[in-house]
Amino acid sequence: MKTPITFAMAAIAFLSVTGGARAEYRPALRTATVAYEDLDLSRSGGRAMLERRIALAVRKVCPDIPHPLRLEEQFFYSQCRKAAWDSAASQVAAASTGTQLAKATITLSGKPRR
User: Fold this and answer.
1) Which CA distances in Å does 39 have to 47, 50, 90, 96, 101?
2) Within a domain: residue 16?
3) Which InterPro entries match (predicted)?
4) How many domains does the chain fold into?
5) What is the mean pLDDT of the chain?
6) Considering the entire predicted model, what is its pTM?
7) Which domain holds residue 60?
């Protein structure tokens, strides 16, 4: 009976010393640029190629697929992908309407919003 009590006391002492601390997940901010000056966005093939390029850029910006049990990392990963796709979508819309023709690149960032 002495051993379980000793183990419990050791665990409590450890947690009180460490404060139950764990490393907070803070992913690094990454960006990617997608060029589309060679694409005709008025055609479906050009738009499809741009979408494929954006998908590759999103994978570069948010490359680390976390373990399914690491919930905080899963949250940041999904937020990173959403932020990257959202930033690309608004720029694609501007490019498709002709308001962004001079730029001919899309820059996306995977910074999750808080």
Assistant:
1) 8, 8, 18, 11, 11
2) no
3) UrcA_uranyl
4) 1
5) 76
6) 0.66
7) 24-109
